[in-house]
What does this fold into?
Amino acid sequence: MTIDDKTRTELEAAAFRRLLEHLRSRSDVQNIDLMNLAGFCRNCLSNWFEDAAKAKGVAVTREEARSMVYGMPYDEWKAKHQSAASEDQKAAFAQPHKH
It folds into this structure.
């Protein structure tokens, strides 16, 4: 498959937007579950977005990046959707993961 850089970037951006839409629609999935299963979570995505912006000289705060990923201010998302981690979730998180 041969795709030019502009088209590849557009496709990657579309896939990223779809991932964000999916994660926003699955607020029942806790970040700790994502971390335990995949080794990354919504906060990781926002951190990566912030890092990429800064690398390009674009001023983005951590809170702005999180709002972009969560679709609302992070504190609002936590209040609406985040539950306390269970002992099983905490134990799984404490285990070393091979990625």
Notes: The radius of gyration is 15 Å.
